[in-house]
């Protein structure tokens, strides 16, 4: 694999190594559970072993008698604490210690607190319960699973769409398909385990926990505990993988806080990987029915996408990816419908490109089938159906470089060498297949605040309560400040991951680079303005230059005509040591309450399909080669090429890493990942990294990322389209397309396994 960072092209920033790279690779970047805490006690969860029913008796005596056990927080011990809420900030409305109802397997029934981790674990194992048990519904086809339309039921889903006359267009289409697709349950397995450490000092509570939303959690935790948010601080400086799993706060946070208050000591609870399958969120299984009709010329006239998603009994979690699939091509008519299926499961939640990964998988697999039905090259098929405007609302795209991405990726991949005949390409015992698919991700931004301080010696401090979840946002924030303030990046320090800092939105939806950089940019502009006024003022070192055309570079304020003044001299003229500016950024179209909501932990998203003037998306094209052993049917992916256009690329190294990581995850979705469910007990079976398969080094060979230049001034002041979630959209469909090309087998249900090809 080529490890070099791509050289910047037009509208791309330098491939500066991450500012925290050294700390990361030397293990000095402590995750929240690594942070030293004096006099800490350890908490271990005890969980239910049924999926549906009520606790009739909870036996804690044996655990209480264990040496070292300090306390047990269990059902009934949450007096004065409000139940969690389901929504963007809260993972589920299930308050496991608030009542005796069991909603899912592995539900928290107690937290044992002890002097040592081992004692707490032993105590948790000694807890037993009696239940009145009911038969649980595990998934879509289970008796008792309840289906309902998503529209109107969930705050997370807007609407079904009926644009044009789908039924008429479809019934008269010359070429059509009507197929169903499915994706399995997938579970978060970040390297860093989930954890909460809670510490009280008087009435002040500090939480160390990996979080993608420190401000939102501060507010939500204060609400649950009925305390003033001023007294709550969430600290999350480094995170070992998030991908949505650390976005919404789970019930555990308040439980650990209650435990720490009871034992009057800090309590640290690290959740085992096994327990995380049930106590954290996950990607729900989905089903899709797609109908596409087209003329013999390949022009689509009718598109319908119906989706079904599993959720928990009480919560209407939904992703509804029809918002993106319905706008992907020039369909003529569009019909979409999303339904929820409530089962006795823990509430699912965000996982990297939550709506797009499953829904675009189905769409792109269907597009490949249509191309086959039409006898048309799949790239050509996309080209023919490239829209001028999105087909639902008729709005323009702020920018759309999809065809450019296809052209560049196809060229680099060598698509022209592909023999379109199925099963025609072979290399010894290996059947060779080549396939492709489109990636799309909505471009959004949310209100964000940042503080920037510049001192006379050229040191810069950036503070923003965003989160370094591995994306490189600390690095790009530093780059933005270094560029605008004309200092070397080594002189910029960035503080993040603490609710005591200026508030930032959830680090989700690929909004962080755009939102954070826009806020940092605004603060830097204010710093520059102050310096420029002083530098060009009567007593300034550049008196008489006028401040309109000044700039900052090499720790100097410079004029257009080549005059310059050292920063230190400008500060001297101002008779101050530092300039500090606090800026609040709100995207275009923000409501009058947008900034107030930012401080309340409910940042408004703008962009995607929400804006009046245009729709905003980033695009990409992914090409995959598969090799399938003709005897064993072993499936290998020797190479992938993806080309992506996402507006301003702040840093080609971190951008490439994000996209490459996404494509690799896409291989996992295509070939490895699936949570196996015991349908009788609504129980996850493969709850560890031995049986829950993710790609390892041996599975991944050449991954080539092409960054396609794109300029978009409409999306946000930084001109940035988020790309953290773009790379793994479409990958699985490209693999399915390649598998079909190699074997003639159309696999519609993920993951694709050897057994499917025998
Ligand atoms: Mo991402 S799944 O929006 O954290």
TrEMBL record:
SMART domains: Ald_Xan_dh_C. It comes from the Bacteria. It holds the Pfam family Ald_Xan_dh_C. One of its GO terms (molecular function) is oxidoreductase activity. Gene3D superfamilies: Aldehyde oxidase/xanthine dehydrogenase, a/b hammerhead (3.90.1170.50), Aldehyde oxidase/xanthine dehydrogenase, molybdopterin binding domain (3.30.365.10). Coiled coil: none annotated. The keyword Membrane does not apply. PANTHER family: ALDEHYDE OXIDASE 1-RELATED, XANTHINE DEHYDROGENASE. This is Putative oxidoreductase with molybdenum-binding domain. It comes from Mesorhizobium metallidurans STM 2683. The gene is yagR.
